[in-house]
Each structure stands twice: as C-alpha cells, then as structure tokens.
Protein 1
Amino acid sequence: MPRSPSQLSLGKPSVRSRRRARGWTQVDLSVHSGVSQSVISDFERGKTIEWPSIFAIAEALECQWQELFIDPDSPDFNLLMADATPEERQHYFDTLKMMKSGPRR
C-alpha cells in the first residue's frame, strides 16, 4: 500500500538532521537563527510555525526553506514516489513547485 505524505517524516528529520550535521543543539540553532528554542523544538516535532521563523531557520542552516519540508533524496520520498500513480506523482511535484514559489501573502 502506498504511503501518504502524512505517513512520512517529511519536515522534522530534515531540520533535525541538518542541525545535527553542523554539530548544533537546538539552542545553537536558536542563537544562529534568532528563533526561540521552543519554536525550533515545535518545528522539529512537526508542529506548524510562522513563516518568518521558517525563513530564519533555513537561512541559519544555509538551505532553501522548501528543503526543511521535503528532502527529495530521502528514502521516504523515494519510496513514496516508487508507489505513486502518475497522478499522485504529478500532485507531489505540483506541490513542490508551489512550495518553491513561496508562501502566499
């Protein structure tokens, strides 16, 4: 059975793994981003946070904000794509394209 995006760990491991790859704690990321440690903790646990915080975290981690949500190189993403129908694939790539255009204001 194909895995839905809600069954994947799309956002949280990306932030956590990027932070840990730098040898940073959540407090370190807080210092570098200006985002409180509690907000970073919430984000790593998959909770919704404000756009300015997302942008600040991405800047501190030197990545695009979209990369904090979906890592196309992750095994989960590749597994999802392997099981997806052509329509589902198109939907996922349309979603990625929309994310790259930034949030609507």
Note: DSSP finds six helices and no strands in the chain.
Protein 2
Amino acid sequence: MSVDPARTAPSLSAPAPRRPADAPGPAPAAAGSAASAVLHPPGGRAAWFAWTVGVTVYVLAVVHRTSLGVAGLDAAARFGIGASALSTFSILQVLVYAGMQVPVGLLVDRIGPRRVLLLGVALMSAGQLAFAFSTAFAPALASRAVLGFGDAMTFISVLRVAARWFPAARNPFVAQLTGLVGTGGNLVTTVVLAQALHTAGWSTTFGAIALTGVPVFVAVLALLKEAPPGAPGPVRPPAGAAGRRPPVGQQIRAAWSEPGTRLGMWVHFTTAFPASAFGLLWGLPYLVEGQGMSRAGAGGLLSLLVLSGMAFGLLFGRLVSRSAASRLPIAFTVLGVTALCWTVTLAWPHGHPPLWLLVVLMLVMGSNGPASLIGLDYARAYNPAERMGTASGIANMGGFIGSMITLLGIGVLLDALAEPGSDSYSAHAYQLAFCFQLLPLLLGTAMILRLRRKLDR
C-alpha cells in the first residue's frame, strides 16, 4: 500500500505541514523490509496480475449494472410499467450502491479487498439470477437491489488492490485504466446483450450473465493476492492508536472532515451523472422513442459513448499522473463542454437534433466517467492509508447520488408530459424532461468552486 511521504514522522523541532499524498518529492528511506514494501510497492508483473484478477470482477459488475440500460423497453413490456416505475429499477440499484459506499470502504479497510470482492460476486450473481426469472415488478425490484449491494463492493476494492501493489505515482493512471477496462463491460452490454435479448429471450440472457459469476468467483478465490509479500495486513491503525482500530464513527468523521474528500465527492457527483443516467436507463428510450432511431442505430451510438470513454480514460490517466494540478482544469472542461452540448441538443427545434450532433454528444459524454475518477484521486491524495477505503467510498457516492436524482427527475417529468392513453413518449416530452439534468450540473459546479477555495486556504 502506498504511503504519503508527508505523513511519516516529522522532526520534533517543528511540525511538518500537511500535503496531499501525491505531492512531488522523494520518499524518505524506509527502515526494514516491511516498511519498504509499504513505502515502495513493487509494481511489475505481479502487480499487473493482481490488478487483472480484481478488474475482472469490476468488468462483470459493469455488465450487471448496465444490463437494464438496453432492456428498458423490454422491461416495461414484461412487467407492464410506465416511465416512473421503470426508473425505479435503476434508482433503487443506484441508491443501494451509493448508500453502501461508506460501509464498503470500512470493510475494505478492515477485512481486505479480496473478501469484499468475493462477497460482491456472490451477491451480483444471486441478484441477476433472480431478476432473470422474475415476472412481476416487486420481485424484480428486490433482485436489482441485491445486485446493487454486490456491485457496490467492486470498484473501491479494485482500487485498494492497486494502491497496495503499485507506487503512488502510478495510482491515478491505474485508476483510469480500471475505469477504461470496466467500460468494456458496458460495451458487452450494448453490443452483445441487446442482441441476445431478441434472440435468446429474457430469462436465458440474464441467466447466462448471472452464471458468468461462477468462474470469476473461483478466479478471485484462487488467484488474487491483495498485497505484495511482506506488506502488512489490511488493518493499519493510525499512529498513537496503540494497535487499536479507530471507532467506525471516528473514522468516517475523520474522512469527511478532510476538504479533499468532500471536493472529490462533488467532482464525482457532477462529472459522472450525465453519462451514467443516459447509459443506465434513459439513453435507449430517448434515441428509439424520442429520435425515431432503430435499436441497432441506438446501440451503435451507445457503443460510441463507451469507446469514447475508453479513449478519454487513457488521456486523463496520463495527464493526472504527470501533474496533479491538471485535475480541476480537466473536470471543469468536461463540465463546461457537457453542459454546452446538452444545451444545444435540447434547444434544437422540435426536439429532433441532427445525427451529427448526437454523435458529438456521445463523444463528449464519454469523458464523464473518466473525469469522475478525478474525484476518487482527490480522496486518495488527501487521506492517510488507513482510511483510504472509507474516503474513497464517500467520494464514490457522489456520481451515483447525482445519477439517482437525475433518473427519478427525468422519469417523473416524462410521465407528467405523456399524452393521455399513450404508452410511449414524444420527442417534445424527452426534450423537456432531459432539461432536468442541468439543475444538478449547476449545483455540483457551485459546490466544487466552494470547496476548491476552502482547500486552497
């Protein structure tokens, strides 16, 4: 696990000023092999192997998470529900995910990421299998909640594995690479799952996804080593704690009181939710019903969003690894361009923007997910190793809270704007309903500006 050189013991003559964990400067020499393992994680092939095993779980989690995004219209027909009820599936799943981030962070800090990943795979597989054979709204909703519990345990665990295996300077790049590889799961969803639903059917398709968890579970159990040889265990009490774990409440308060944690949460909130809400649920209905596209054409645009995200992940990972000062400029650029593209799209006459504009919108929204990982980098950089999981959990809540608010707001507005007796929504209804997302964009941007000033002070 990487340790902030600035948090090593200062001289007794004068207190050392606090600085973020990724501040430049050489690490002090370590005394002993165990300390060296902590201060200088080895990297190399063993690190990449451990990360590969862990990230396989995250790819599977993204497949589970986004599986409803291409099945929204099928789910509405299967369960006989409207837009508000349909949005409840994703809202509940995201609500569970967001609510579990702090508990999961605490679990990762205390029992280690390997055990948390195993539990996550088991819950995701059970939830998806139940969803595959659900024929009524209530059991299907409960199944998605179980899936959300499992999904919540994956990303933070993979980042913790990476933090223990890779040097601190590599963490931003590895985090972006984790997100990039995870988007491969989204690509599987938009390309493979959308087609499978119409050839193999509902139960077979979702059942096959659930059973994919079996080999992944075995791989994590047999192959994953969560830390290099000689590194200490998952629990590292802070200095002066006499080897005792800090109380849970104290650990959460300490992480939350750090302005870098809160700034990370709001960066994640504001940058993540536009693409997340679009990909999780409303993208396919908007393109098919609102824009009159075929399912194949809509799937192609959603695939473009995923591919764009992979490219931006590589770019942002390189930039942030080279200069921590690039974090907020990247975030503000992504926010400004995303808001501009959506404003032009939604202001287009009669709610039917041209195809080239939709392509540009997909390319721009591809930057949202990679930019949101900057929030997790703030949480990592401004917290000591013993509460890194807790702080990452707090920051990781942000985008999913924003997504939940947006999913609900769009669903409620669509139902309010629907024509009486109609089971579909017009382009004008989508045009007005999607304007809702500009509100959380403004709120999040204001909070980032406020916390940036506080962090500078």
Note: The two ends are 29 Å apart (CA to CA).
Protein 3
Amino acid sequence: MRRSVVVLFVALLASAGLLVGARAAIAAPAAADEAVEIDLYGLETCPHCHAAREFLEDLATEVPGVVVRYHELTGDRTAQLAYTEAVESRGESPGAVPAIVLGERLWIGFSASTADAIRDEVERRLAAEDVSAPAEAPTEERDTVDVPFVGAVDVGSSSLLTSTVVIAFVDGVNPCSLWVLSVLLALVLHSGSRGRVALVGTTFLTVTTALYGLYIVGAYSLLSYVSYLTWVQRLVAAVILVFGAVNLRDAMRAAPATLAIPGSAKPGIYRRGRALVSPERSVLGVMAGTVVLAAGVSLAETPCSAALPLLWTNLLAAADPGAAVAASLFALYMAIFLIDELLLFGAVVVTMRAARLQQHHDRLLRLVTGAVMVGLAVAMLAAPELLESVTGTLVVFGGAALVVAVLLVGRRFSALLWPTSMPSDGR
C-alpha cells in the first residue's frame, strides 16, 4: 500500500512537471531556435547603413531573442547574390541600400519611421502572435513622371511627388527672384536690342539656377546624412515654421518685407544692370557682367529664397527614396521652379516690354509662400504621417489654400489687415 502511494505521488509530480514544461514552452515566445532574425544588407560608405546597423544592434541588445546579421556588399559576391534574391523575392528591385529583411518583410532605406516599424514587427513576433502571415505593410503608392532630358521615371511615393510639384511651383514664384529678373530685363530693354535682352536673361537664369541647384544638393547631402536623427528633422521644421510665419506677417502689414533683398544691395543691382546697357560693352563683357550680377543677387536673396528648398530637402531626406529617385525628383523640382521665370523672360523678349513685379503681387506671393511653409512645418512637427500618403499631403496643402482664401476675403473687409496704401521699398 505504501509503495503504491509513493508510485502515485511520483507520477503526479512527473505529470505536474510535464504540464509546467508545456506551459513554459507555449509562453516562451523566442526560444533559441525561434529567434527573430534580421538581415541587414549595406555598404561601408553608406551613412544610412551605419545608422540602421547601430539601431539594430541596440535593438538586439535590448530585446532577447533578436538576432541581427550584417552583410557587407562591397566585394562580397555571395552577399550581393543573397541581397538580390532577398529584395526580388519580396517584389522590389535591387539597387538601394540599406535593405533590411525580417521574415517576409522588407525595408529599403532607413529613417525614424523605419525604426518604429521594425520595432513594432519585432514586438509582434515576440508576443507569440501568428507570424505565419506578417502584418500587412502599407502599400506604397508609386507614380511615373516624364522628367525633361531624363525620361519616364518611377518617383516612388506619390505623396513625395505631390509635395515636390507644389513646393517647386511655390518656390518658382519667389518674389525676390522675380523682382530681380524683372528689374534687370527692364533696364536692359533700354538698349533696344532683343539679342542683348536674350543674352542677359539667359545668362542670368543659367547662373542663378546653377547656384540654386548647388544649394539644394548641399542641403540634401547634409540632411540625408543626419536624417535618421528625429530632432534634426524637427529642428528644420521649426526653422521653416518661423520663416513661414514671418512671410505671413509681411503679407499682412504695410511695412517693407523682412525676408527680402536688403535695401543696401539694391543700388548695386541697379548700377550693374544699367552698365549692361552700355553699347561699348562687348558680348563677352555683357556675359561676364551678368555672371557677376547673378552671383551677387543669389547671395543677397538667400534670406528670401532659402526656406522652401530647405523644406523640400528635409522632406526628401526623411523619405530617403534612394539616389536615383532623389536625382529624378531634383530634376523635376528645378524644371517646375524655372517655369514662371522662363515665361516672364520669354514674354519680355517677344514683346520687348517691361513686366515689373508690383507691391500687391509681392504680398500675394508672400502670403501663398508663408501659408505653404506653415502648413508643411506644422504637419512635420505634429503629424508627419500625414505626409506619407497622397490624401494626407493634399489635406495639408488644402489647409494652406484655405488660409490664403480666408486672408484674401479678409482683404475685402479689413483695411487694417490689407491697407490700401503702402510705403515704397524701392521696387
């Protein structure tokens, strides 16, 4: 009898042990053979790859069960083939790094939003959810545009395309650059030579566009290097918010604009412009004088024109679309940016009549520019996810348009808001 009791007790203990072991096996979400494995494909020269690797290594240290494997693609044919297979099997085209693979999920590029998505996926898998079918990734809207001299280009996210088109157009109607071009052409018209007008206008637009393009490329290079730092993106957005608020204030008051070409620089612009009219000047002399004038103007108008390209490059760096897409969007931006100045230039050459930018034009352009800046900056600070979809992007621009409409209506009813007479600022 005693032996039977002992046997029964031992059997109960064994059963309890098996039950506890089974429960532990079910509760353990990340056993050694069930680790969450993440593969990172990158290049030693890629700053975003370094940022992604640092994040993933920190994640593996913080979260037990996460295993990170880094594959350097430089000079490693095996890693290159594995990268190509991993990307293509998930429906993407190889060509951009970093590429981060977690199960069936794939992320190309790295930013703060990418880090959040990876952390969420890891937590979901470690929570013992059904990972046989991964969480549905947001569908990336893609679009194709015809870029002048480039051809049909897939520009990735349509929301980024929308932002590029709108910001480039608003940037193109920059009151400072339009004023300088209109004044310069008006002065050269006194020569009575359509050829000289065409030469001065073409040279001026070529130089200023080249310098503007260099500024945009430099800003993008810097921001793309540190775009994974959320505080940098927010700092840029805060600066843009200040610039936008100043433009809105300038549009609604009688005082001269704050963000404008300094009054001290305008006599020099007039003087150099008149010098181009001199019949003694050779073609090379006219071109050289225009180049010097264009370079000086580009520097003088920096406070007026720097904010919008900075805003766009911040959006582009945060999205991290890859070098090919970024170059295509840059070409598109510059093409749209030049449209209004080319129209003004062409009209003057054809008609040989001056087209001056008036005071009320200046204020309207500042109103539109300020509203776009404020709308995008607020979205980047408060709800950056809005700018990741076409609908959200259109909502942001629609809000800016609504602000412009309300203030334009206010012009009809409030003399304080829109004074009818304004002091001249030398334009």
Note: Residues 1-33, 130-156, 413-418, 420-427 have pLDDT under 50 and may be disordered.
